[in-house]
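User: Quick sanity check before I run a bigger batch. Here is a single chain. Can you write out its predicted 3D structure?
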Amino acid sequence: MASHRKVPLDNQELRKTGFWLNQVFMIVSTIVGVYLAAQSGLQQALTFDTYSKMEDNYYLRMSLYEELKDNIGEVEHYATEVLAKSPALQIIKDNRPPMDLYVWETMRYHPATLETPSEILTEVRRFYGKSRQLMDKAEKRNLGAAYAGEQLKLLTDHMQQNVLPALAHSAESLQQALADEGVVIGSLKELNRAD
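Assistant: Done. Predicted structure follows.
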């Protein structure tokens, strides 16, 4: 067996101050770089989340608008074409409009619902409650059919003139706020599908 020669280690470089300063600067620059990258990524994620929630709320308001518009039209038709003529009780019952409440009921479980202006939600809730109450009273003959029709017509006029435009305006303001930031409605959903 050959004897192993000990090779002296050159540790002169470790004793120099420049070496240690270089190592400290590399560590500090790495930490700062990672921190700045994380901050930038977090900011981008928060911005995307904010815009995505605004877009969801836009779709929610527009869905409510369309459903409500249809229901108001049905109630108005019932009031003017059925109840106003004071028909027989069976005709009143047979022609009662079956209001579609899918969006309204679904909104209970949607986190963006309470981002919709409360005065709009209150008006929608009142419309459904009052119209149901007036139709029930007309069917039970607690109110005259013609009078119930007049009251329903007043209610639908109020909704068409005040509430529907306010709901449409609130959705359009979300769309405009997104457009001001360079986001087109639908583009965020397309980004999610691409992933």
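The mean pLDDT is 86.

User: Great, the batch can go ahead then.
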